[in-house]
Automatic annotation (TrEMBL), chains A, B, C, D:
GO terms for cellular component: cytoplasm. The lineage of its organism: Bacteria, Pseudomonadati, Pseudomonadota, Gammaproteobacteria, Oceanospirillales. It comes from Reinekea blandensis MED297. It comes from the Bacteria. This is Acyl-CoA dehydrogenase. Its cofactor is FAD. Residues 139-239 form the Acyl-CoA oxidase/dehydrogenase middle domain. GO terms for biological process: fatty acid beta-oxidation using acyl-CoA dehydrogenase. Residues 44-134 form the Acyl-CoA dehydrogenase/oxidase N-terminal domain. Homodimer. Residues 251-399 form the Acyl-CoA dehydrogenase/oxidase C-terminal domain.
Length: 411, 411, 411, 411
């Protein structure tokens, strides 16, 4: 039993921390202000890039802090899921940091899909510019008309028509759809409705300028459009793409999704842990510097206990996530289903509580844009729904727990 | 012991419910959409009125549903705090409804201050247009530089200079400051710094166009500017107002505040209870209409238990608030301190939980602007800080509880 | 709306409080010590009465503090459910107090059954000595072999055989079965298995010395036999009783149970609220008198907040229970199902939390028999299972909430 | 990063699990019944050994499953704190199992004290028979008259008088004091009241038959005397022991205590985790075998979610504890203060919740002695107070967290 990270992980983390401290944190507040002015309101057609972010991307790439998430030693940095975990945590401290290192969702997941399941042509056309950070991508899975917590509810369709595939359906919560550089979507739909339940779907690459792709609107998430990424609602009306845009094969949608989601949840969770650490730091600093009733806030009432609770929740959540990452690396996603579902429940709920505590310690400043706390709380709230709500993951953990007590095969 | 509302209260409630059902709820979504487009972003100088809201105000006034909060039979509707409580609950169901009935904070509190403590001239100049709904007002108490949970931290000053008062200081979270009709502020500051702790402050009326009043910016609250009301940060630099703008007297700031806050907390809490009832209704309706894994959501996992928990929390919170209102009416604010502080803690926390549950039942729709749920959650979060954070009110309840066991006078 | 208790209730409460203060509380600790020595261990055949308790019963009866629970003006004190509620609360402050006033479960519920549904002969034979406090009774419903949360699981049988009824089955958690004065049981079993689900059962009076009644053992409840009452497991093997022992009629078991449970839950809950008030008082007193790190415990960390939380939980639970009592009195049990189930969930959970907090404030003394706190916590734990577990009552509340949104009749 | 246990640990665990499965679990219920009859009531002078336990001790010793807790390769099994952790977990599944392997508190802690700080003579006289399991020992620290959460409140005294030490004071919660084999106490008291705060105390070995040692009574813990161990209250009246009974030196009491407590908390916590795993297993098994409303309980309402929550809480608590053990092994107790205090808060609270859930799933059986669940819940409740209450440990975690943000040395 050894809780130390590998030397490669530690070395990369040291460099990443230095970059965050020297280049990102000092401009955090300024860049958020610029964005708030530049990209106000829900009219995504007017959203624009933040030049300062683009410059930081170039710097990060030059510093070798690029595509850290990808285990491939050539295309990424050769870091395992466990190795990358503390780096993802570090990037989670600042809302816009992951993009600077080309490590932001949903692009990371989409790149993983292409890396593992894409054809050579698909890699050349889409993976390459994504790895370069030249374009952005979206993932079109959730639908407004059905409870998407049950993925088999999906209504969108993919039909073969000669050498083409014809897509129809309506999707929402396609994060990143409003980004000026968003160029391609991975679209999931019913391709083989007669097949067994988990072999009915396919994933197809769709250029966002294809005929029949209609961006309907951007959705606010807890009151914020999250520009210039955005959460889009988009309809696909007889969208025709060549068959080579199909990823892997018809009926493979769920198989691809499963491979995509394991590491992705580690990334999400570790970033959330980084946000929670940041929130706790801010809470302690505010609690030390503000005085009420003659004492710094940390000395008043239950404030110190709440700080302790935050520390204990964060440390538990981190260990749970690292253990899940280690299981993915050592025994594979399929043998780590309890662990992966468990962190999906535990970590966002933890962040929601820690951010809420930190907000309370800040008073009005906590809910304002003067701190990242309200954004952290909003992100936590979203994460409790994204990639399956708490309830679905609790159910998975329960099912596997109960199965231990059933005769083989009755799970 | 009788849990029935008075006939006057029941009659007014019936009319109010009819108005809400027929005139407000059908246009809720449309008006919110209009507002989102019309008043996007934080540049308050471009915010504008929603004509449809103005029209509804006229209708409500004609229907006798106007100034319901004011116990005065002539200026208001002669309803006691207890009588008004269920009406406040009803208006809490729709975010913008209170203004339609001229019952929105902070105007209600400001009107109460003028009604109880204002001079005839002040009533004529400010109370009258406020009661008419022609202007809006703000309350300038909280300051950015100090922990305002301890009101004695206040740094703003009010100095006598001949027949003038000279005001200096910086305030924030002045809700309504961005509203096109906002014309006057009640400014609280140190007037008698040498006096005993609760006799050091005064409240002064300040026209918002007075020289030296500088609106610095609007703050987001949980990501939203809450336009066209807004939460403003405003500086007062040697603002000079005539002495007749002083409310009551120098040193009376805390005495006024105490009188203002009792009924105000009932109003806030009852509105929050209305929001919680609405959230619960939406949760049940969504839970019945959406199907996952072959069943409506209300039949899945712990969803029904969460609905039950919401019902039990809401009913307890309502009874606690009604009891507090009844104590204000029968024994006065000073003898209802435990009750008033208790609801200030219990109700916003309850709403935060119920809204969170309802969001979760809705999936992505819950955090979007397609439902009022994210706004309810954000409002609950704000209420846990506004008018004293949870911690201050818990401390008050504890202090009074402990005092029961101390020799007289050692509380 | 009026939160004052009726004059009759207030007068009785004043006398009861005086009796508790002067006669019961001063000997509480001594009587518990006597009982612990006299009635140690699980051999119920050696359990004996506490003479001091018997003497207090006589005193209470002479003081007119007897059968307070019974609304009948002649047999009881003519107090409504709402009137009796604060009296039940008062008796809940001391574990053995309810028996002193002949107001202890399950005798109160059994007396109510006989009062409402018993024949004249049954009243003469059993209700009279119960009202006199000369005998004790038990209620045999729960069974060890099935999940009794679903009452339709019941396996015990009642068969007609000429002028006799023949009973078979095994029951447990028959509280009071070990008491030296326990003379009669109300036995519930399947009498009409072919009838509709809620018309299959009957209730029958069984003298405990009838042939075939076998007391198998006493069960510990959270480590305690609760002597000299006890929680018994008892088998009925071809127990033959005359048909006149049948209460009301065959198939009426559920109808009787429903009538029995409404007021009974008010009683249980109000006693639990009394226990919670006592626990809070003890917590504050301990917190004021013990010093650590230079301060009384109430000034340390979150202790004051926890005291406030207890006050707020208790007050909410009491209002919810009083409202339920008022609904029983004004619209009847059948129209107060949400309220009755809600208090059954809320109040025991509240007591469990408040007692836990008070234990923590006491340190080791809190879990010891030097305070009633561990007993309160154990009682709360039992109450979360007795008369239907939390889950069943949450389900009832949810079902009725959801039904509001269903077309008539689909609940 | 490697979450696998060492080969030595895994091998020992496999043998221990086999012993538990084959020799302990099959007789668990029978031995608890024997004990309940044999050792009923609080008269400790009549408590006696359970011969079956003594026989199992012999077997365990012969199987090499003896003194597993002691890192010494000769006297124990050479297992590090981390290595021993999963073994402690396994023994925690059955209440009386730790003693079978000579791994029960407080003997383990006392043996560690003698092992690290005892003189050769002390080791010969007391450590040897303790390691043989021939005698039992107690630890006398907590006092009834003061808040022992603040150890500096201690009032007991140790005075030098020639070659003797004279002890005075009253202690309680001396666990094991009622055991027939209890022969010696480690007594902690003020020896150097003028010294700095953490150098004022000493620890002294006191034979329980020394003149002036008076066992006053056994205390119930949550209603149970925990015979034949017991929790004793004991007075020391001018108890005179030779100076060679002093452990280490005068003024070293706190230094010894600190060394004693680190591994001890790992042991306590891992046993609690074992109890929680057992409780969860029982809950699932009950939930699968009992049927209500036509379904097994695990399919009803929120039961499956609660099972999932238990799994997630247990896994997090275990990882936190293993990490703390690893830090003790790698960087020492002094550098693992956050971790050691964190598990002391997290784990007992987790067990309390999991046991409570499992009780609820069992209905009445859950609170009875038919399952170990009520005992687990009671043990968890005790653990939240023993060795420092939650509040003290939360305070420690908070203090160290806050110190990270203070200038060096201001912690």
């Amino acid at each position: 039993m050894d809780f130390n990270h590998s030397p490669a992980s530690q070395a990369a983390l040291a460099r990443l921390k230095a970059f965050m401290t020297e280049r990102v944190l000092p401009v955090e507040s300024q860049l958020l202000d610029i964005n708030r002015t530049l990209n106000a309101g829900g009219d995504w057609t007017r959203w624009s890039l933040i030049p300062e972010i683009e410059a930081l991307k170039t710097e990060a790439r030059e510093a070798g802090l690029w595509n850290l998430f990808l285990p491939d030693a050539e295309l990424g940095q050769g870091l395992s899921c466990t190795d990358y975990a503390p780096l993802a945590e570090e990037t989670g401290r600042v809302l816009f940091a992951p993009e600077i290192f080309n490590c932001n969702a949903p692009d990371t997941g989409n790149m993983e899909v292409l890396y593992h399941f894409g054809s050579e042509q698909q890699k050349e056309q889409w993976l390459k510019p994504l790895l370069n950070g030249d374009i952005r991508s979206v993932f079109c899975m959730t639908e407004p008309e059905v409870a998407s917590s049950d993925a088999t509810n999906m209504q969108a369709t993919i039909k073969e028509d000669g050498e083409s595939l014809v897509l129809n359906g309506r999707k929402w919560w396609s994060t990143g759809l409003g980004h000026p550089n968003a160029k391609v979507a991975i679209f999931m739909g019913l391709s083989n409705p007669e097949a067994p339940k988990h072999a009915q779907h396919a994933m197809v690459l769709v250029p966002l300028d294809a005929t029949g792709v209609e961006i309907e609107r951007m959705l606010t998430a807890n009151g914020d459009y999250d520009a210039p990424y955005g959460h889009g609602e988009v309809s696909f009306n007889n969208v025709r793409v060549p068959r080579e845009n199909l990823i892997w094969d018809l009926g493979k949608g769920f198989a691809i999704a499963q491979g995509r989601l394991g590491p992705g949840r580690i990334h999400h969770c570790m970033r959330a842990i980084g946000a929670a650490e940041r929130a706790l730091e801010l809470a302690v600093q505010r609690g030390l510097s503000r005085v009420a009733f003659g004492k710094p806030l940390v000395k008043l009432g239950g404030n110190a206990e709440r700080i302790a609770d935050a520390r204990m929740m964060i440390d538990q959540a981190r260990l749970l996530t690292l253990n899940a990452a280690w299981k993915i690396d050592t025994v594979g996603v399929k043998n780590a289903m309890t662990e992966i579902s468990a962190i999906k429940v535990v970590v966002p709920n933890m962040l929601q509580q820690v951010a809420d505590m930190a907000i309370q310690m800040h008073g009005g400043a906590g809910v304002s844009h003067d701190t990242p706390l309200a954004s952290f709380a909003a992100a936590a709230r979203m994460l409790r729904l994204a990639d399956g709500p708490d309830e679905v993951h609790r159910h998975m953990v329960a099912r596997l727990e109960i199965a231990k007590h059933l005769p083989e095969g009755r799970a």
